[in-house]
Write a structure and sequence with these properties.
CATH topology of the largest domain: Chloramphenicol Acetyltransferase
EC number: 2.3.1.20
Number of strands: 14
Number of domains: 2
Distance between the termini: 58 Å
Family: Belongs to the long-chain O-acyltransferase family.
Catalytic activity: an acyl-CoA + a 1,2-diacyl-sn-glycerol = a triacyl-sn-glycerol + CoA
Organism: Zhongshania aliphaticivorans
Number of helices: 14
Protein name: diacylglycerol O-acyltransferase
């Protein structure tokens, strides 16, 4: 029987009616092109239903529900749902006319904004058909939306799940990609057993925390601090922007794509720049354009919350959450794109030096030893304080994906996007996912915060084009 980790449970404790802890994967497909499959009409609902049911053993997420302990005395457990019915987790909708990208994004946002039924395994899937007018995709294209609770999965684990649902060629295989062993099932403990276990965990948490500190301090001997490794970059206060306001329960999705190879070339603009730095630079430049247009650009930089995969080697396929984060100065007040990028690179290098070593892991490890009651109370206190908008203006998450095309029952996945939770006082989240030669940007926000989404997309494209021009001209 598996217990939720503290970081997993935190996404349960922080959930409100306005801010659900949903994570939604959005995959767009074109119908099969092979001669045999093309001879019969392709039914997306039947094909995906068959594929998903075959891949249920991929993860216990699909068949297990979250069982809470009374009064949050201990972290919840995963319990096999004795009443699991696959049909309760799959639905189908037809995209609104004319079946274009706007219609898909609205359908995905509506799906993402609905709460999951936590009496069941915390996931739902929806097929969106009638996507006949999406750019250069074939008539009859469709999308698969998979929504999971963030308590069950983070971005890295979600990508592993995405891989496992697909095949590497048009002909379906009998076994999924990267399927791990399904853990042995044990009877769910009684209420008395849970309370005894809760008491034991509560009493042991201070000892475990102390042991973690001792272990980490020993391993830090002789290591340099981040201030020894790179020049210190002063951290400015976080300005107030339109992105830092209460968010509505109805979320909005905005999407745009770039050629990945062209994005990678932009690393030549600044020594030491990474792909993630280029992404941050494009987002920062777009925000500079957007806020300047509305005469709302602060004279101090916006700050982005950037999640980091904290898994150790070999843990990538593990379910649940294992993330850290860094706050990045986006230098958004600087008009010159190269100067802006240089400051972003310096900031990320400093943040990585502070967080990728042992000192950073200490913070993540210690959070694993908080008792459930303490974590629940701490989370509610943070929400009430509105601290999110005081430490960042927005979030940017980069999740690397597969470099080759993937297929689901013969249908090829052409595009991949994602939606994530927001928070009060933080209503703009860029999710960046690479797939098969494309870099796909998904923006989770609300209508009140970003009413002119087409203009934001134009700002992203214009900043990318400007950086290309700078590269081609030698700056």
């Amino acid at each position: 029987m598996k217990q939720l980790k503290p970081q997993d449970a935190q996404f349960l404790y922080m959930e409100t009616e306005n801010n659900l802890s949903n994570v939604t994967m959005i995959c767009v497909y074109t119908p099969p092109e092979t001669p045999v499959q093309a001879q019969v009409e392709y039914d997306p609902l039947a094909a995906i239903s068959s594929q998903l049911q075959k891949r249920l053993p991929l993860s216990t997420i699909f068949t297990h529900r979250i069982k809470s302990v009374a009064m949050n005395l201990d972290y919840p457990y995963w319990e096999k749902d004795p009443h699991f019915q696959f049909e309760n987790h799959l639905s189908r909708v037809n995209a609104a006319a004319p079946g274009d990208r706007t219609a898909l994004n609205k359908a995905a946002a509506n799906f993402h904004s609905r709460p999951l039924d936590l009496r069941r395994p915390p996931w739902e899937a929806q097929i969106v058909t009638g996507l006949d007018n999406i750019d250069n995709l074939a008539v009859g294209s469709f999308a698969l939306l998979i929504k999971l609770h963030h308590a069950a999965i983070d971005g890295t684990a979600a990508m592993q799940l995405f891989l496992g649902l697909h095949d590497s060629n048009p002909e379906p295989t009998t076994s999924p990609i990267n399927v791990g062993n399904v853990p042995e099932q044990h009877p769910y403990p009684s209420r008395q057993q849970l309370l005894r276990k809760a008491r034991q965990n509560y009493l042991q948490s201070p000892v475990k925390a102390a042991n973690r500190i001792i272990s980490q301090l020993k391993s830090m001997r002789g290591t340099k601090t981040h201030t020894d490794l790179v020049p210190h970059v002063k951290k400015p206060p976080v300005p107030k922007t339109r992105f830092n306001q209460a968010v509505s329960p109805e979320k909005k999705l905005v999407t745009h794509s770039f050629p990945l190879d062209q994005i990678k070339l932009l690393r030549g603009l600044c020594a030491g720049a990474t792909l993630n730095d280029i992404i941050l630079g494009i987002c920062s430049g777009a925000l500079n354009r957007y806020l300047s247009h509305h005469q709302e650009l602060p004279n101090i930089p916006l700050v982005a919350w950037v999640p980091i995969n904290a898994r150790r080697p070999g843990d990538a396929a593990d379910d649940g959450n294992n993330i850290s984060a860094m706050a990045i100065n986006l230098a958004s007040q600087i008009s010159d794109p190269i100067e802006r990028l240089q400051l972003i690179v310096a900031t990320t290098q400093e943040a990585k030096a502070a967080r990728t070593g042992t000192a950073a892991r200490m913070v993540t490890d210690l959070s694993q030893e908080l008792p459930s009651v303490g974590m629940a109370a701490f989370t509610k206190l943070l929400l009430a304080s509105g601290v999110t908008g005081k430490i960042c203006n927005l979030a940017v998450s980069n999740v690397p994906g597969p470099t080759a095309p993937l297929f689901l029952k013969g249908a090829q996945c052409r595009e991949q996007y994602g939606m994530v939770p927001l928070g009060d006082n933080m209503g703009l989240f860029f999710v960046v996912m690479s797939y098969n030669g494309s870099l796909n940007i998904s923006i989770t926000t609300t209508e009140a915060i970003l009413p002119d989404d087409t203009f934001m997309v134009n700002c992203l494209q214009e900043e990318f084009t400007l950086l290309q021009q700078k590269l081609n001209s030698g700056k």
